[in-house]
Amino acid sequence: LQGTIKVGDVVSVKGALGNYKGYQLMPLSAADVKVETVAATEPAPELVKAKTAISAVKTLMNKETSNLIMADKTITLPATDGVVVTCELVRPSDAVSIVDGKIVVKVGDENTAVVKITYSVGEAYKTVTFHTIRSQKLSDSDVVAKVKFDLALGKTELTPADKLPLTNEAFPGVKITWALKEAVEGVTINGNMVVNTGAEDKNVVLVASITFGEASDTKEIQVKALKVVKEWDLVTNASTLKAGDVLLFAASGKAMGSQGNNFRNKVDDFDGFTTPKGAETVTLEAASEGKFYLKVSDGYLTAPNAETKSNHIYTKAEKATDGTSEWTITIVDGVVTLQPTTTSEGRTLAYNVSSPRFACYKPGSINGSSIVNISIYIKIAK
Question: What span, in angstroms and rounded, lies between the C-alpha atoms of 158 and 113?
Answer without folding.
Answer: 40
